[in-house]
Specification:
Blueprint: E1 8-22, H1 35-39, E2 46-52, H2 59-63, H3 69-82, E3 90-91, H4 111-114, H5 116-120, E4 132-133, E5 143-145, E6 153-154, E7 184-186, E8 208-216, E9 219-226, E10 233-242, E11 253-261, E12 264-272, H6 281-295, E13 319-325, H7 334-343, H8 346-351, H9 354-360, E14 406-411, E15 415-422, E16 433-445, H10 447-450, E17 459-460, E18 472-476
Parallel strand pairs: 1-2, 12-13
Antiparallel strand pairs: 1-16, 2-9, 3-4, 5-7, 6-8, 8-9, 10-11, 10-18, 11-12, 13-14, 15-16, 17-18
Length: 477
């Protein structure tokens, strides 16, 4: 520590809205509304939105040119929705409140009566309980970019800023690709939001800025932050691991984004794991998780700041959140599982949930936590219906047992989950799952740092290293 510049550590609490949704290859329609999803909760500081199957997982999309049309539509729709959130203003850091759900509560259907306040928040349609003040928006720069050999990486781009790029889920030097440099530079400090959808806030500024967006075939991860936080988000890096065809194509796998908010490091992983409900398929999903943890690598940051942290692996980060269609099933027959669903006997269902079983046996996600589940299985539903798909099939036909395929887990201290619920959109055969977290964030400052200006940012990317799996680093200065 430099004694000439004593440092003060300030701990703030920031809210993070995390959602995962398998949209079954469907592109959003012009009349699709996300308001019940994103408007229903009090506005968060950070939105981490992960999708699976944003394009159909056919041979053309897996092996051919990437279809980025749906991603454009999702980004435009998200931007429009976030920047029209009600109850505007700024989150004021405050002590972490008590969680909405008591973590030792009963799983049984009777828990609905035990926790009425929780079920009242099922769709997040509650008045704002987090105080917001002021709204001095910070402009979002327009960025130019060049693309690397890995899949398209968009940081801080408008929804229209997409190009074609490589098809591999993870970079493999043996394929003949050579490392290249990706460069992003701010062009206009007055640029605030896409004018394409016409949804700017008064004064032309966006309340939320897109800081990272990444597609790998059907997996899509996008991260948005409040405008006033943008200049404190640094060291953006992305790593992709393909676990699909031939063991490395991107129809299955993960996108991981590493970033720092002040002096606290975050890693968000969006994944789509191996499907199937045959006995033993859960072991393939375990293998996917282990390979993702093993192969996800982020380059070290070359920083002049002596206190800068630069984690290389997922578990080296201070706060880690894993979301996605993990595809773990319920090890029961369709008839047995459906009967328990109708009884709302979540405890009995969870005792047969493959993810919980594998965790108890220490075979996957050791040390990871998941909130209590008080909602019905999220898969598989009939089209535009509240009926499980098996209800429409003959009993002698093979029916998919209802399952909690869509999950959110976290690792590390300083994270507290306030809610864990599902949505009721009939858009897909999956129901979306959401969670709200409070995260402790450390910031340090001294005389030297107080004199440092973040207003004019230079953003650059290190050259990809040979062992990369499609990662990219952005440094904000």
């Amino acid at each position: 520590m430099n004694l000439d510049h004593p440092r003060i550590i300030d701990v703030q609490n920031h809210s993070i809205f995390v959602a995962t949704w398998n949209v079954a290859g469907r592109s959003p329609t012009s009349n699709l509304s996300l308001e019940d999803w994103l408007h229903a909760s009090p506005p968060a500081d950070i939105y981490v939105l992960g999708f699976q199957e944003i394009v159909p997982l056919n041979a053309g999309n897996v092996l051919g040119a990437e279809d980025n049309g749906p991603a454009k539509k999702w980004l435009a729709l998200i931007r429009k929705t976030l920047n029209n959130l009600p109850g505007g203003g700024y989150y004021t850091p405050s002590p972490i409140p008590e969680p909405i759900v008591e973590m030792d509560a009963d799983f049984e259907g009777s828990s609905r009566q035990k926790n009425p306040s929780f079920y009242a928040r099922r769709s997040f349609q509650t008045p704002s309980s987090w105080r917001m003040e002021n709204d001095p928006s910070i402009p979002q720069p327009r960025l130019e970019r060049r693309f690397s050999v890995c899949d398209r990486v968009i940081f801080g781009h408008r929804p229209s800023d997409y190009d074609q790029s490589s098809r591999w889920g993870s970079h493999r030097p043996s394929l003949g690709d050579s490392p290249s440099t990706v460069l992003y530079s701010p062009m206009s400090s007055s640029y605030a939001a896409s004018s394409e959808d016409g949804h700017r806030r008064p004064g032309g500024h966006s309340r939320y800025c897109l800081v990272a967006s990444k597609q790998m075939v059907g997996v899509f991860l996008t991260i948005w932050v409040r405008s006033e936080l943008r200049d404190h988000v640094k060291n953006m890096k992305v790593s992709c691991v393909g676990r699909g065809l031939m063991g490395y194509l991107g129809n299955k796998g993960s996108i991981s984004v590493s970033m720092s908010l002040h002096q606290t490091t975050f890693c968000f992983i969006c994944s789509h794991l191996t499907s199937g409900q045959k006995e033993g398929d859960e072991l393939r999903r375990n293998a996917d998780v282990m390979e993702i943890l093993k192969k996800t690598r982020f380059p070290r940051v070359n920083s002049e700041c002596s206190d800068a942290k630069s984690p290389e692996t997922i578990l080296e980060h201070d706060r880690v959140i894993w979301l996605g269609d993990l595809n773990y099933r319920i090890a029961l027959t369709y008839r047995s599982a459906k009967a328990l669903v109708e009884m709302q006997n979540w405890r009995a269902l969870l005792e047969n949930d493959q993810l919980r079983i594998e965790q108890r046996r220490g075979r996957v996600f050791r040390g990871w936590r998941e909130g209590k589940i008080y909602f019905p299985p999220t898969y598989k539903y009939s089209t535009n219906s509240d009926r499980y798909a098996g209800d429409d099939m003959h009993p002698k036909e093979k029916r998919r047992t209802p399952a909690w395929c869509d999950r959110i887990l976290w690792h590390g201290e300083g994270l507290q989950q306030l809610s864990y619920v599902r949505g009721e959109s009939r858009f897909s055969d999956h129901r979306p799952v959401y969670g709200i977290f409070w995260a402790e964030v450390e910031s340090t400052h001294d005389r030297l740092k107080k004199s440092t200006s973040y207003s004019s940012s230079r953003i650059e990317v290190e050259e990809l290293l040979p062992y990369s799996h499609g990662y990219t680093e952005l440094n904000f200065f």
